[in-house]
C-alpha cells in the first residue's frame, strides 16, 4: 500500500507533548540502581566461586547448565561429584559477573528444585583443579623433572608420549601448563576448579556433616567433570 | 459409546444451560478412582488434589491415562489442538485460582503444549501438564512420536518430572501439582512413559505434597518491614504498583485496604489489572508501553514506589535508566530472585503479598502527607484523558466497541484477549473492578490465546458470569478451530473480533519505525468470520456501522451459546499512549509524530 492511500492518519490522544512535560533529573544504571548522574560508573566484573549442594538426580547437571545458558550467565568452569551423603552431589561453579549478576546466579540456582543450598566462597577458600597433560616423550628426564617441581605424577610413559597429572590452584596449573609447553603439548584436559570453605565455615549454608555410619563407600562412579570455556 | 459427549445444540434449543448436565457430575459425591495401575494412580492423584476439569487431546502414548479418566469424576474437555488445551488450562487456573490441568500425547502432542506452558511460565500461572511418552525401553531410540519432552520443556517449567515407576507415579503427579502452586506459581510437567502408566500398582498416592524447600515463609523480616514503613511515612509522592502477584496471592483486599488507608495513588501492571478497582479515585490504571499517560507520569515522578508482586518487565519499565528514577523502591515479592533483578530494591520484603501488605499496614505509624500528590495525579488524569472521537463518516472505532461491551455487561464479566492492538484497547477502555476478570497473555505475548482462554475461563467461571473474548483478526485466525469445542460443549461465550485486516500492532510499528512498509502485516484476504462461526455451528454477526454495534452486542450476549461478532473497525486506528521500546515512561507519545 503506498503512503498516500494509507488509511493511517496522524490521530492520537490529547495532552501535552513530551517536551512540554516535567521530567525528573534522576537516573538508574543498567542494574536498575539509582545513581548520581554526575558519577556514573559501570560496575566491575569479578570472578566468584559458587558452590551448590544438590540432589544427585538424573538431569541435575543439565538443569544447572541450561539455567546458565538461558540467562546468559558468564561461566568459567563447572565441576560436579557425589558427596559422602548418599544421593547428594556438590557442584562448584566459577562465574564472572558483576555483583548483581553473581547475586542473580545464586538466587536462580537456589530456585531449581534439586538444589538444596547455595553458597559463595570467600577469597581464602581452599581451591584445587586437576590437569592431565600429554606431551612428546623425546626428553623423559626433563619431563620428569618438571613434573616433580609441580608435585605431579606421571600416569603414562610410552616411547612417543608421556602423560602427567598436576593438581593445585588455578595459577599453579597455569604455570605448569606454561612449563610443559617446551616439550610440545599434544593434548590437555582440565577439570575446572573445585573448592571448599576454609576451616569450620560451611561451604554451603545450613550444611550438616554426614552422621557417623552414613559415609558412603568409595564413589562407585567416577565423578563427571565438565569444563566450559568461553574463550 | 461416548463419555461426556454433548451433540452440537440445535439453534432452537437455546434454553439448555450449557453446563448443567455435565457439571452436575463433578459436584455430586464422586467415587474415587480405584488404583490398579500407573494411569489410575495418576488420575487418583488428580482427584485427591481436588481436580474437577482437565483439557487435552488424545493420542497413542497417553491412552492409558485417558482410559483411566473414563471412570473418573474429572470432567475432560477435548480440545481441537494441544495449544488450545494448554491455554484453556492456563485460563481456567487464572480464573479459579487453582492449577489448570492439560494433557497431551508424546511427540507432537507434547511440543504443541509448549507455547501454553511457556505462556504460563512467563505469567507465573500455576498449571500441570501431563504428557504421554513412549515406553521407557524405547526412550532414546527415536521411536515413533518420541520427543525429549522433559528436555524441551525444562526452560519453561518450574520443574518437570520423568516418571520412572508405576508405584510412585501417582505421588510424582501430586508433587508436581503441589509444586505448581507453591511459592511463586508456575507450570510443572510430568512425562508418563506408557509402560509406567500400564504398570501394575494399587498404592493410593495420597494427597498432593509439595517438595522440600518449595514453600517459602509468608512473612517478611519484621525489621525490614519497619524500615520500609519508615520510608513510606516520609514519602511525599508515593505510588503503589500492584502486579499480577497481588491477584495470585489473593491479596486484592489487603492491597485495597493499604492504598485507601494511607491515601496512596495506585498504578497496576497489565497482569495486575483487577487487583485494584479502576473506578476508584486513587486508581491511575496501568502503566507501561501502552499504559495511561497519568499512570506513566505518576510512576515517573514518584519518590517512593511500593511495588507488590511484579517482576518489572521491560514493557512496564521502558528504559531502566528512566524508570521511577527518583523513587526509593519497596519491593514485595515471594520470589527472592525477582528482588533487584531488573530494578534495584532499596527495601526488599520477601514473602506472601497478602501477609506482607498486612505487616506493612500495621507497621506504619505516621501517615504520609499525600494530599497534594493525589491532587497532582488527578490533574494528570485531566491533562491526559483516554478520549477518542467517533466521527460518523469513519469506520467504527475499537474503543467504542470495548466500552459498549463494558456497559452491556456486569462488573464480574471475564474478559480474555489475544495479543496485539485489540488486547491493548480491551485493557485500556474496559473498567476492571475485580480480580480474576482480566485473562490475557502478558509476558509471552501469545497471539491466539483469547479463544481457548475463553473456553477455559467458561468452565472456571460461575454460571451467571459472562465471558467475553476480545480478539484480533490475526489472533483469532491462529486458534479459531477451538470454536468447534465451544459449539460441541455449547459454551456461552462471546467472541468480539476487532477486525482491521492487519496484524495491527505490527502495522502500527511499521508506520512509526519502518517507513510504512507493511511487510507481511496486511491480509489481502480474510474469511468472513461471522459465516465461519455459523459453519462451526456458532452464531455469527457482522458489524460495519456504529448503529449496528449495540444491537449485535445485545443479541450475542442474549444468545445462550458461542457467538462471534466480526467488527470491521477503523483499519488505521492506533494504540496510544505509547512509550517507544526502551524509552522513558514520562515521554509517552500521544500520537505517531511524538514517537
From TrEMBL, chain A:
Q: In which pathway does it act?
A: Amino-acid biosynthesis; L-valine biosynthesis; L-valine from pyruvate: step 1/4; Amino-acid biosynthesis; L-isoleucine biosynthesis; L-isoleucine from 2-oxobutanoate: step 1/4
- One Pfam family here: ACT_AHAS_ss
Enzyme class name: transferase
Q: Where is the composition biased (Low complexity)?
A: 201-219
The ACT domain, residue ranges? 49-126
Q: What are its E.C. numbers?
A: 2.2.1.6
Report residue spans for region: Disordered. Answer: 1-42, 194-231
The keyword Amino-acid biosynthesis belongs to this UniProt entry's keyword annotation? yes
A molecular function annotated in GO for this UniProt entry is: acetolactate synthase activity
- Gene Ontology cellular component list: cytosol
Sorted alphabetically, which keywords does the UniProt record give?
Amino-acid biosynthesis, Branched-chain amino acid biosynthesis, Transferase
One GO BP on record is: L-valine biosynthetic process
| InterPro entries in UniProt | Acetalactate_synth_ssu, Acetolactate_synth/TF_NikR_C, Acetolactate_synth_ssu_C, ACT-like_dom_sf, ACT_dom, AHAS_ACT, AHAS_small-like_ACT
**PANTHER family, A to Z:** ACETOLACTATE SYNTHASE SMALL SUBUNIT, ACETOLACTATE SYNTHASE SMALL SUBUNIT 1, CHLOROPLASTIC
From the Swiss-Prot or TrEMBL record, give the protein name. Acetolactate synthase small subunit
Question: What organism does the record attribute this protein to?
Answer: Natronocalculus amylovorans
Write the gene name: ilvN
Automatic annotation (TrEMBL), chain B:
Residues forming the Thiamine pyrophosphate enzyme TPP-binding domain are 418-567
Domain Thiamine pyrophosphate enzyme central positions: 227-360
Q: Name one GO molecular function term.
A: thiamine pyrophosphate binding
A GO-annotated cellular component: acetolactate synthase complex
Reported cofactor(s): Mg(2+); thiamine diphosphate
Tell me which UniProt keywords the record has, alphabetically. Amino-acid biosynthesis, Branched-chain amino acid biosynthesis, FAD, Flavoprotein, Magnesium, Metal-binding, Thiamine pyrophosphate, Transferase
* Pathway where this protein functions: Amino-acid biosynthesis; L-valine biosynthesis; L-valine from pyruvate: step 1/4; Amino-acid biosynthesis; L-isoleucine biosynthesis; L-isoleucine from 2-oxobutanoate: step 1/4
Low complexity composition-biased segments: 211-222
Please state the Enzyme Commission number of this protein. 2.2.1.6
Question: Looking at its record, which EC class is this enzyme?
Answer: transferase
Catalytic reactions on record: 2 pyruvate + H(+) = (2S)-2-acetolactate + CO2
Task: Identify the stretch(es) annotated as Disordered.
Answer: 1-36, 188-222
The Thiamine pyrophosphate enzyme N-terminal TPP-binding domain covers which part of the protein? 37-150
Biological process terms from the Gene Ontology for this record are: isoleucine biosynthetic process; L-valine biosynthetic process; sulfur compound biosynthetic process
Do you know which Pfam families this protein is assigned to? TPP_enzyme_C, TPP_enzyme_M, TPP_enzyme_N
Q: InterPro entries per the record?
A: Acetolactate_synth_lsu (IPR012846), AHAS_TPP (IPR039368), DHS-like_NAD/FAD-binding_dom (IPR029035), THDP-binding (IPR029061), Thiamin_PyroP_enz_cen_dom (IPR012000), Thiamin_PyroP_enz_TPP-bd_dom (IPR012001), TPP_enz (IPR045229), TPP_enzyme_TPP-bd (IPR011766)
Q: How is the cofactor bound?
A: Binds 1 Mg(2+) ion per subunit.
What family is this protein classified in?
Belongs to the TPP enzyme family.
What's this protein's name?
A: Acetolactate synthase
Which source organism does the UniProt entry give? Natronocalculus amylovorans
